[in-house]
Amino acid sequence: MKAGVLIILLALPVFLYIFLRVFGQNKYSLPVYYPQGVDSVQVDGKWKVDSVYHTITPFEFTNQDNKKISGAAVKGKIYVADFFFTRCGSICPKMSSQLSRVQEAFKGDQDIKILSFSIDPEHDSVEVLKNYAAQYKAESNQWHFLTGDKHKIYELGQKGFKIAVGKEKEEVTPDYFHSSRLMLIDKQGRIRGYYNGVSRDDVDKLILEIKVLLQEYKG
């Protein structure tokens, strides 16, 4: 009996060491969406074959402070994107409320941005967006509400972020359709996650996965 206990005590440090070596590191990583093939890339002076992924197409729109915000301006940043319009009385206020939680979680971190693209740019002027942003206490250096050419915004949503966005019929009162998804974009402009923007649980997951992505860049 004593011999058995002794063997267990002697083996315990070895078991703990193996456990920590195998499980003690963060093995969780986020997927990269829409692979487009493979290409040769040079890393540390050596060529290797690596996967190539879809990246967000270039864009430039105007934010609530009447400043131009482009894809180049968020290059090297992690950002969350959504599509909305200020006259939306259904899901948009819920999405914006959830995004205010994301802003609060990363307040002051200039590596994290939020981009909200209006799909009703004829109505959503700079002034209208500024008033809307104030309702959600948006920090204009971190959370950008964007307006611009309608067709370019729709094309960006459909081809860039790969979501449904558009206008169902031409009327004085707009009848728009758009996704409730939030998109997580990494520093290379690749899509790393989709989340239900009206679900608190899904936005909790988004906040967690932004932290995972930050750790991924820290190595």
Note down, in words, how this protein is organized.
There is one protein chain. The chain has about 220 residues and is of the alpha+beta class. The chain has one domain: Glutaredoxin. The chain is built from 5 helices and 11 strands; from the N terminus they run αβββββαβαβαββββα. It has helices at about 1-25, 90-105, 125-135, 150-160, 200-219, and strands spanning about 35-45, 45-55, 60, 70, 80-85, 110-120, 145, 165-170, 175-180, 180-185, 190-195. The strands form 4 sheets. The protein has a 5-stranded mixed sheet. The protein has a two-stranded antiparallel sheet with strand order 1-2. Strands 3-4 form a two-stranded antiparallel ribbon. Helix 2 (about 90-105) packs parallel to helix 5. The longest helix is centred in the first third of the chain and has 22 residues, at about 1-25.
